[in-house]
Every structure is written in structure tokens, then in C-alpha cells.
Specification:
The protein is mainly alpha-helical. Helix 4 packs antiparallel against helix 5, helix 5 runs antiparallel to helix 6 and helix 5 runs parallel beside helix 7. The longest helix is centred in the first third of the chain and has 28 residues.
């Protein structure tokens, strides 16, 4: 099962990087659709860019669950934790390197995204399967629902803190 999961995660890594990169432009391509704003970045804030990892990972995780994950108890919860690890990695690396160099640059921003996606996939392979009963997956589903809600809420009603600030327009959320 580990070899099959490793293959799925390698494909998933490429899928997440590819779809995440495309997702960066989808909001503008959609003529700034409010629906699309829930899952595609609406500005250049760190919060909005976390969608580039979260939603492609969630979509691929659903496919992966149908293919192999349904045979693994704890798959959904572990997948949630792995995505959360990727998101946290992006935030920590971004604020660390921008704090050191005094600003951001595109190649380093892309690098934080790639490292976050890689750690997310690696964690999934390393920690799967969790020896647990199936009830932990219900917790994972609930946490995914909360994150989806949080991304929508953070886009339309962002708190005025740095994570949500668009460094280009100096606005929060949809402007």
C-alpha cells in the first residue's frame, strides 16, 4: 500500500503545483466572480495565496481517496494534517525570508509554494496509514469544511492583520 500511496502522492505533487499555478489567474479569468473568489486568490496577500495549495490538494485528495484512500482508516484526517503542514510551511518560509531580505521576490515565493506542497505530500506518505478507527476521518471532514468556510470568510471579511494585507494595493480581501 505504501508504494501505491507514494506513486499517488508523486502525481499529486505535480498536480497541485500545476493546478495551483493556474489557479493564480482564475479569479481574473472568471471576470472576478464572487463564487470563484472562495477558492482562487483575489489579491496578492499571503492568505489568498494559501488557496493555491489548499484547493488543488483538496481536489486531488478526493480523487486519491476514491482510488486508494478509502482502504486506509484515518486517510482523510491525515490528508488534512498534511495540507495544514504545507500551509504552515508556506507562511513560515515566506515571512522568514521576507524578514531577512526585506521584501519578496517571485522565485522565492514560488519556492515556498513548492516546498509546502512537497512537505505536504511527504507527510502523507510518511504518516499513512494512521492506525485508528474510522471516526477520526469524520473529524478530518469537519476540519476541511471549516477551512473551506474560513477561506471564503477571510476573502470577503478579512481581519486587518498582515496575513490578509495585499502588499500591492494595501487593501484587504476583495477590493
Amino acid at each position: 500500500m505504501k508504494k501505491a500511496l507514494l506513486r499517488w502522492e508523486l502525481v499529486g505533487f505535480v498536480f497541485v503545483i500545476s493546478l495551483g499555478s493556474l489557479l493564480h489567474f482564475v479569479y481574473d479569468w472568471s471576470d472576478r466572480s464572487s463564487f470563484v473568489a472562495c477558492f482562487a486568490p483575489v489579491n496578492e496577500s499571503t492568505w489568498e495565496h494559501l488557496k493555491l495549495l489548499f484547493f488543488p490538494s483538496l481536489l486531488y485528495g478526493i480523487v486519491e481517496y476514491i482510488a486508494v484512500g478509502h482502504k486506509i482508516e484515518g486517510f482523510v484526517f491525515t490528508k488534512f494534517v498534511s495540507i495544514l503542514l504545507g500551509l504552515g510551511t508556506i507562511v513560515v518560509l515566506f515571512y522568514t525570508y521576507t524578514g531577512i531580505v526585506g521584501g519578496n521576490c517571485l522565485w522565492a515565493d514560488i519556492g515556498t509554494f513548492v516546498v509546502g506542497a512537497a512537505l505536504s505530500s511527504a507527510f502523507t506518505v510518511k504518516k499513512m496509514p494512521i492506525n485508528s478507527d474510522g471516526r477520526v476521518d469524520w473529524i478530518g471532514l469537519l476540519l476541511f469544511a471549516i477551512m473551506i468556510f474560513a477561506f471564503c470568510l477571510g476573502t470577503f471579511f478579512p481581519p486587518h492583520i498582515g496575513l490578509f494585507l495585499d502588499p500591492v494595493t494595501l487593501t484587504y480581501g476583495i477590493s
